[in-house]
Amino acid sequence: MRRLTSSFLASVLAGSLLAPLLAAAPATAAPARQIEYTEWDAPAGLQALPAGVDRRAWTTPWTSPGFALTRLIPSWSARTPGDSQVRIEVRGRTDATTSSWDTIATWTSGDRHFERTTYGAQSDDLASVNVDTWVVPAGVTSYQLRVTMVRAAGQKTSPRVDMVGAMASLLPSVDSVRTSRPGPGRGVVLDVPRYSQMVHSGHYPQYGSGGEAWCSPTSTSMVLGYYDALPKAKAYSWVPSDHVDPWVDHAARMTYDYEYDGTGNWPFNTAYAASLAGHAYVTRLRSLREAETYIADGIPLVASIAFGEGELDGAPISSTNGHLLVIVGFTQSGDVIVNDPAAATRAGVRRTYDRGQFENAWIPKSGGTVYVITRD
């Protein structure tokens, strides 16, 4: 098990010691934003199903982040050959009670035998589910994840789970945050390829019709392209040859949530990315200063933002209730450089946004949510 607060994730991944730098420059006023990501690598019992066994479950230990978490987002990396799948569930407890198990998702890497899905609110006791996020209004002090592998009776090939993790958070409800001071990412720009979601408008209504609906798989694909980890041409051979960036159409299909009716499910995107790059998960950060540690270590970030008209100067769209883009670097003065897939063409994808405006479109709106995708 690896337990990492998001402040230290980049430095642990790169083997550097940036904690004093981060601690010296808090980005927001009190109260503190409490975030912890915990991961279990290659859980025992989930590497393969023995012959004659078609179902097996594994449960994490009770895990306490040290605060009363009110949100939890799981992540996983799995393989589901043939007619097989994995199910992710979560429950929590307080000093007084333990909640029921809530299902976050049943997931497969393909869609031939089963349509990957979430399960709606499930608001029966302490918590409810909002697509990919477990919501606990009063908070719980600890949680467990349960992962179940299932395959069709008689199938020889087995699903396997390489990693399961969870981001737990307790965040203040704020309308705005103080702009963070620039740090180690100043002047660093990563060579992330540029893809536009808008060139896919009208593609595949069964997977959301492209265009404005495909910001998440387009952003995920840009990071995979950066790592030279896009799927092989055979995987997207079903896409017509005249489609620009056909791997984006494929990513939309492989991340589509049939209950949510969209491609924006956060852990569905990281599970897809993990199958190609090697490691990916959803977490939250406290500021762009924390994001800079990733950029300085060569790790682009997919960030979830939302903004109203006039709140993000230079954006290709006037407003959005939820949008994904890629943080690729920073100017010398600390403004954020992004690949924004909402641009009409590849040529307009690279943008520079004001640091303070971006943080206020990101931190209060999605809690600072990011996809962290790395090459193993």
From TrEMBL:
The keyword Transmembrane helix does not apply. Keywords: Signal. Residues 190-342 form the Peptidase C39-like domain. It holds the Pfam family Peptidase_C39_2. Residues 1-29 form the signal peptide. This is C39 family peptidase.
